[in-house]
Amino acid sequence: MAGNKKQTTRSNYRLAVDVGNTHTVVGLFQNTNIKRHWRLATRKDTTIDEIACWLRGLNTPEIAATALASVVPMQDNAWLSALRQTFGVTPRILDYRDCLKLKLRYEIPSQIGADRLANVLGAEALGVKTGIVIDFGTATTFDVFANHTYYGGVICPGIQTGLRTLVQNAAKLAEPELRWPSVTVGRNTDDAMRIGILSGSVGMVEHLLSDILKEPAFKTRNPLVLATGGLSSWMKGRTKAIQRFEPDLTLIGINHLLSGAKPERLMGRSKA
Questions:
Q1: What share of the chain is helix, strand, coil (3-state, %, to 5)?
Q2: Catalytic residue flag (residue 115)
Q3: CATH number for the domain harbouring residue 21
Q4: Total domain count, the chain
Q5: pLDDT tens per residue, range 178-229
């Protein structure tokens, strides 16, 4: 009888992998909803077997598709092979050659970081047509887009990168615990460094955004400013220039490559 026939349903789970300079973040999606994510330190010498063993330990449901965005080329083959070996599907690679036909107004498209393209696709997936994405990571990047066209952006030292570079190059400075100081003029070296790095980052963000918004192409477009990245939480409540925080934006963009569909909203994760 038809009612007794066992129905086989295709899995709708996907895995999005963002290999960054400092951390690698893996997101489990059910269609367009992110269900879980994991963060691990990026090691440039990680082997296929190590990654495959780690992936098997996630105990995910059956994975129907995977996609990778990487800014660490020496790890690409290891991740691609481990994903293929573990889940039996060929991963899709997000880069300038495969980014949902995003128009790239960049002099050398191959130089655009895959994470930057993923951020733009993620913003578009959330319904943003014109925007500026600021990603606070190893570098702080600004990426400008409108109507499925990528116009370029800005690359600055990241918050932690700036702090560590300062410490490495100044013999008498030790790295302080990073926290917002309660003063605007430091009366000790640790606070002086915190003000310089954190308040300086706010000033940099506001100044660069002001300059970008003066560009003729964006004067009348009113772009939405979104923030993402592992260090974006440091900016929450510190500037009105950032209108929305999307911590999973890069993963959303990588997953969007697999779907091309508008995702459902992530409950409770969108507002500053």
A1: 35, 25, 40
A2: yes
A3: 3.30.420.40
A4: 2
A5: 899 899 999 999 999 999 999 999 999 999 999 999 988 777 688 999 999 9
* Residue 75 CA from chain centroid, whole number: 17
Q: Is residue 201 part of a domain?
A: yes
Q: Report which DSSP code applies to 271.
A: B
Q: Would you tell me how many other CB atoms lie within 10 Å of the CB of residue 33?
A: 14
Q: Answer whether residue 63 shows pLDDT above 90.
A: yes
Q: Residue 134's closest CA among 145, 149, 147, 146? A: 145
272 located within any domain? no
> Same domain, yes or no, for 134 and 70?
no
Distance CA 22, CA 82 (A): 20
Does position 268 have pLDDT exceeding 50, yes or no? Answer: no
Asked if residues 226 and 133 have their Cβ atoms less than 8 Å apart, the reply is yes
Flag whether 193 is in a domain: yes
| pLDDT, tens digit, 9 for 90 and up, residues 96-107 | 999 999 999 999
Q: What is the CA radius of gyration of the chain?
A: 20
Active-site option among 115, 135, 143, 248: 115
Domain span holding position 92: 12-101+250-263
Tens-place pLDDT, residues 228-252: 999 999 999 999 999 999 999 999 9
Residue in 222, 219, 227 with CA at minimum distance from that of residue 143: 227
Asked whether residue 192 is domain-assigned, the answer is yes
